[in-house]
Amino acid sequence: MMTAQSATRDNLTIQACLGQCTDPCPVQEQFQLFQTVFNQLKLPPIVDRREHPRSDAHRGITIVVLAELVEAVNVFLEGNRQCPGGVLLAMSAGWMSRRPSPDHPDLDTLYIHQAMTADRGGQTYLDVFSHPRRVSYLVNHLTGFTTEFRRTEGEELAAFGLDTPTSSSLLLNRRADDKLLTTSMCATVGVAHPITVGFWLPGDHNLHQHYSNNYPTVTAVKLTSRDLDIRHVEAKVREFLTSGMLADYEKVFISLFGV
């Protein structure tokens, strides 16, 4: 189990396994941030199991989230609550590799060698695999588009010629980053979601046609130039906050589109 004293040693080991790394090393920073966040959430500390590579074959799907902490922690923990061991977090493209596909001679398949893993109860591990696991689906957030061009190593990893499905398409990123859209879709299919009010302006896409007002837990408010008056928005927010649906809640989270 990692302690405050062992954190520096383990982070240096992580940096070394990446080969070349910028200073400050983004993976080292993210790993330290992980420990801080888990401590604040009162989750158990990360257990470093790299001295004993995992040899157990995972027969189910392997979803890999290639991302920084801010983009990944919720998906990583909830994914493993629903599918223990099936959602892996890679904080660097150096933890993965491309190999010739066993199914398509002209394509490559992604494999993961090292990852953050978790069990259903929220215990997290840093693991290496004696036999790299084949990736069923890659959620690629280490791209210029998703990191404001701070990190782009995911682009080369997931370049053309893969038979591994990935999430790096511009259209899919735009949909996934639209919180009002994803919440509306959850409401439509009966997936648990937060009670939400969202404000949107007509833009250059037609995703708004999927925003839902058919469910009491989701309210989509279309704004016009006239409605940009702060008093109009304030009235809608006040109406939302005083609704009976929030009686059992203590906090409200505010998010900008795309954040």
Helix content: 25-40%
Assembly category: single chain
Say how many strands there are: 9
Overall mean pLDDT: 79
Main beta-sheet annotation: 4 strands, mixed
Side by side, the strands of the main sheet go 1-6-5-4
- Helix vs. strand class: alpha/beta
**How many domains?**
2
Number of helices: 8
H/E element string?
HHEEHEEEEEHHHHEEH
Strand-residue proportion: 15-25%
Q: Please tell me how large the radius of gyration is.
A: 21 Å
Low-confidence blocks of residues: 1-20
* CA-based shape: globular
Cα(first) to Cα(last) distance is 33 Å
GO molecular function: ATP hydrolysis activity; carnosine synthase activity
Q: Which SSEs are present, and which pair or pack?
A:
Elements: H1 4-17, H2 26-40, E1 47-48, E2 63-66, H3 69-82, E3 87-90, E4 96-100, E5 108-118, E6 124-134, E7 137-140, H4 144-147, H5 153-157, H6 170-177, H7 179-189, E8 196-200, E9 218-222, H8 230-241
Parallel strand pairs: 1-6, 2-3, 2-7, 8-9
Antiparallel strand pairs: 4-5, 5-6
Helix pairs in contact: 1-2
GO molecular function: ATP hydrolysis activity; carnosine synthase activity
GO biological process, one term: carnosine biosynthetic process
